[in-house]
From TrEMBL:
<feature type="domain" description="SusD-like N-terminal">
    <location>
        <begin position="87"/>
        <end position="218"/>
    </location>
</feature>
<dbReference type="GO" id="GO:0009279">
    <property type="term" value="C:cell outer membrane"/>
</dbReference>
<keyword id="KW-0472">Membrane</keyword>
<protein>
    <submittedName>
        <fullName>Starch-binding associating with outer membrane</fullName>
    </submittedName>
</protein>
<dbReference type="Pfam" id="PF14322">
    <property type="entry name" value="SusD-like_3"/>
</dbReference>
<dbReference type="InterPro" id="IPR012944">
    <property type="entry name" value="SusD_RagB_dom"/>
</dbReference>
<dbReference type="InterPro" id="IPR033985">
    <property type="entry name" value="SusD-like_N"/>
</dbReference>
<dbReference type="Pfam" id="PF07980">
    <property type="entry name" value="SusD_RagB"/>
</dbReference>
<dbReference type="InterPro" id="IPR011990">
    <property type="entry name" value="TPR-like_helical_dom_sf"/>
</dbReference>
<keyword id="KW-0998">Cell outer membrane</keyword>
<keyword id="KW-0732">Signal</keyword>
<comment type="similarity">
    <text>Belongs to the SusD family.</text>
</comment>
<feature type="domain" description="RagB/SusD">
    <location>
        <begin position="303"/>
        <end position="516"/>
    </location>
</feature>
Length: 522
């Protein structure tokens, strides 16, 4: 495990950091006390704002999220993270190490905040502003452990890094996945109990916790509780599907809209690195690279996801650029490029026949991802972009997910259902996409809907995984994971590929991680 600066706490005007090897983050044990800090709501909320920032989430959401959630699931093609296409990932994979580091870094933030705020309360601090902050930290910690349980299966659980560090025993075992999931669930229940009914846009609420609990219960196949929690979100009336689907991901003015239950918060900035959304260049078509916006199309849609869209599904053009796709407002221009400038003068058109040097685009799958690509820059008719950075939030839970969770929970493992409430929930999502309503639904119908609704949002791998090994194998081995000229299929998907290996460097420092998992709960 590398030595990294891993602990950041925002205080009133102060930035406190400490360094500690391992994934065991802990607060500084010298100098700083709670006596001079966290004396009012503004100071406490300044601290918890760190948990939403792109800074701690950066190494997950930038590329690891794409490689794990979409390349591995067959939604994306790439020439860079090819091991995720072929399921040949090793413990030395850069994306695996990046995701692990980001998740335990965030957990470290949560650990120190919970401990610090509890100590502040014990010495007379105001419960009215400390309790909601503690609940926020529980929400984030529970959410991250939910990701960890789905990504690695068995994994360490760290709650008191200070005590661990002082003990001198850094040999932390892996705990059983069911216990990691239980821990995540208990964290989210604590968040649900302590969070307010509403808050300023971007802050999580009681209903954010209910929504994430619904997702976790569904993963555990606890359909009754998944249905209950999803229904509570629906009945609250606080959320709705927004009409501008593409704008959720490409317009900073739509950050924290009425569909968002939890999003990583970004600002249009290059410094510090990670403040801005870094997905823009990895998805942007090369023909849209300008003096303001980088675009190198590292990830593109897979041929298999393109086949998944039903005829007339509006989500296809909202999510994918293909031949003929247009945006009349975008008018990129380049220095000393008269043919390019003439081609773009009346608005952008995605064209696979036009010469590439003159504004055309011809990649291995003949398509690019539109989600999270903000555009060529403000001077050229799009949202503002600063090189690799846009100001768009990364959405981790939205109302469409709650609706589809609700429908699936009512289905409850049965072959099909014509339940009116299940159909109403699923058909809301289909209606926005311009599709005819279903009159009965199966698990495959819901899985299809989830795939196209959340394409390129880093979620579909977990949907495949929770189907169980046999069905996951059938799904994966049926997918074309290649290019227009070279179709490619996985033929040897094995059960050990259902979860990622723990990073090699972590095992070197903590050999217990290579051993069989043990129970966390006695």
């Amino acid at each position: 495990m590398k030595k990294t600066a891993i602990y950041t706490l925002l205080t009133a005007g102060a930035l406190l950091t400490s360094c500690q090897k391992d994934f065991i983050d802990r607060p500084s044990l010298s100098g700083t006390t709670t006596g001079n800090y966290y004396n009012n709501a503004d100071e406490v909320r300044a601290a918890t704002s760190t948990l939403y920032s792109g800074l701690p989430w950066r190494n997950y959401e930038s590329r690891a999220q794409d490689a794990i959630g979409d390349v591995m699931s067959g939604n994306m093609f790439t020439y860079t993270d090819t091991e995720y296409l072929s399921f040949s990932m090793s413990s030395a994979s850069e994306r695996i190490g990046a995701a692990w580091g980001a998740f335990y870094k965030i957990i470290g933030y949560c650990n120190v905040m919970i401990k610090t705020f509890e100590e502040k309360k014990a010495t007379g601090g105001g419960a009215s502003y400390l309790d909601p902050a503690i609940a926020e930290a529980h929400f984030i910690r529970g959410t991250v452990y939910f990701y960890i349980a789905r990504t690695w299966g068995h994994a360490p659980i760290i709650t008191d890094p200070g005590a661990t560090a002082l003990s001198g025993n850094f040999n932390i075992p892996r705990y059983l996945q069911k216990d990691v999931l239980r821990f995540a669930r208990e964290e989210l229940l604590a968040a649900e109990a302590g969070l307010p009914e509403s808050d300023v846009p971007g802050r999580v609420t009681k209903y954010s916790a209910k929504g994430m609990l619904a997702k976790l219960y569904l993963y555990e196949k606890d359909y009754a509780n998944a249905k209950t929690k999803a229904e509570e979100v629906i009945n609250s009336g606080k959320y709705k599907l927004v009409s501008d689907y593409n704008g959720m991901f490409t317009k900073s003015a739509m950050n924290n809209n009425e569909e968002s239950l939890f999003s990583i918060q970004h600002q249009l900035a290059q410094d510090p690195w990670g403040t801005g959304n870094l997905k823009n260049p990895d998805r942007g078509a090369g023909c849209l690279r300008t003096a303001e916006a980088d675009a190198w199309e590292m990830y593109v849609p897979s041929l298999d996801i393109l086949k998944e869209y039903e005829f007339g599904d509006l989500r296809r053009k909202w999510s994918v650029m293909e031949h003929g796709w247009t945006n009349p407002a975008w008018k990129p221009q380049r220095v000393n490029a008269p043919k390019y400038n003439a081609f773009m003068a009346n608005g952008f058109r995605y064209d696979t026949l036009q010469p590439v040097a003159d504004g055309g685009n011809l990649n291995a799958v003949r398509a690019n991802i539109a989600k999270y690509f903000a555009g060529p820059g403000k001077s050229f008719g799009s949202d503002a972009v600063l090189g690799q950075n846009s100001g768009n939030n990364v959405v981790l839970l939205r109302y469409a997910d709650v609706l589809l969770i609700y429908a699936e929970a009512i289905l409850g493992g049965n072959a099909s259902t014509a339940d009116a409430k299940a159909l109403a929930a699923l058909n809301q999502v289909r209606s926005r996409a311009g599709l005819m309503p279903k009159t009965a639904i199966t698990n495959d119908d819901i899985l299809h809907e989830r795939r196209v609704e959340f394409a390129f949002e880093g979620d579909f791998w977990y949907d495949i995984q929770r189907q169980g090994y046999a069905k996951a194998k059938a799904i994966i081995e049926k997918q074309n994971r290649g290019t227009v000229t070279a179709p490619t299929y996985v033929t040897n998907f094995s059960e050990d590929r259902m979860y990622l290996p723990i990073p090699a460097g972590e095992i070197v420092q903590d050999p217990e991680l290579a051993k069989d998992p043990v129970p966390y709960y006695k």
